[in-house]
Amino acid sequence: MPANLTPQYYEAEEAFKKAVSVEEKIAALEEMLAVIPKHKGTEKMQADLKKRLSKFRQEGMKKAKTSRADPFNIERQGAGQVALFGFPNTGKSSFLTAMTRAQPKVADYPFTTTVPLAGMMPFEDIFIQLVDTPPVTEEIIPVGLSGTLRNADILLVLVDAASDDCLEQLEFCLNYMKEKKIVREDTAPGVRGVSPEKVLVLASKADLPGSADNMQIIKELGPGDIDLIPVSNKTGQGLEDLRVKIFQTLGVIRVYTKIPGRDPDMKTPFILKRGSTVLDLAETIHRDLPRLMKNARVWGSARYDGQSVMRDYVISDRDIVEISQ
Ligand SMILES: Nc1nc2c(ncn2[C@@H]2O[C@H](COP(=O)(O)OP(=O)(O)OP(=O)(O)O)[C@@H](O)[C@H]2O)c(=O)[nH]1
Ligand SMILES: [Mg+2]
């Protein structure tokens, strides 16, 4: 019996022949199977297509399992994610070493770092994630870096205060972040990007001669709306204050919870956005808790310890909250 194949089928077959990746082959075979005339004369061909499709699907699944994860996609951990950004040799990896227990390679030649590397920065009783990144220059910008930066909660732009092109480094970085919509005014849930007030500019190597003059140049000629923070990975200048600044800029609060009749759990606070209410906390603890919650009491920001509060009560950093069901 003749197969009477249609032009659409031949087109799909052509796409299959040209396909290079497994995904393309699967898509073309699915198309062939969809458009092949369904009658007795094509039964064997249909069975053959299904067999090939199943083989390529298995191959695709194996590939997905073994293929390495994207190194520019850093899984968020801790109370927030802070990405470093800057020219070569500005001290990004040294900064990660100074603030966390991570041990990135540090060297006095450029382009030492090739892929992002995360470390956890202790701040009081929580950890904030810092992500070291490969450098940028006017000529070279690593593919994938904009995604890493866009995903962060805070960006730390490092400029080398000891270098005479300090101001140019800063202007290039700020422009790049704006152009690529890494930094944007219109951030919203579901829109990736960092709001301008969450960008901090560090003048690194503040211990070296010449750094004070370069910082003065930035203050006089640079963008007026930035707050330049001098730091030194060598002497530790500015680093402790910066931990506090990072925490404050993250805009989160720590909330300790308490079961009625027991001591509060002061070891592992819940991290919530500043402005969160008792109801937000209940939702974070368990999705059924808002429905089951009967009473809430607060120690800390409340007028007196253990005061009963409404579910729209706005929690403050370090409050202890007891929810009873
Ligand atoms: N004096 C001084 N030197 C520093 C400071 N921070 C880093 N360095 C030196 O600067 C050089 C570059 O440091 P890195 O931390 O590797 O710089 P980086 O920005 O990670 O470099 P890339 O990976 O190439 O982007 C090294 O020789 C460091 O020892 C600092 O605060 N003061
Ligand atoms: Mg580095």
Tell me, rounded to a whole number, the average pLDDT. 92
Please tell me how large the radius of gyration is: 28 Å
CATH architecture of the largest domain: 3-Layer(aba) Sandwich
CATH class of the largest domain: Alpha Beta
The small-molecule ligands in this entry are:
guanosine-5'-triphosphate, magnesium ion
Short description:
The chain has about 325 residues and is α/β, with parallel strands linked by helices. It has ten helices and eleven strands.
Protein described:
31% of the residues are buried. The N and C termini lie far apart (73 Å). Helix content is 35%, strand content 20%. The protein contains ten helices and eleven strands. With 325 residues, it is of the alpha/beta class. The strands form two sheets. A six-stranded mixed sheet has the order 2-3-1-4-5-6, sandwiched between helices. Strands 8-7-11-9-10 form a five-stranded mixed sheet. α1 packs antiparallel against α2. Residues 92-93, 104, 112-113, 132 line the site of magnesium ion (MG).
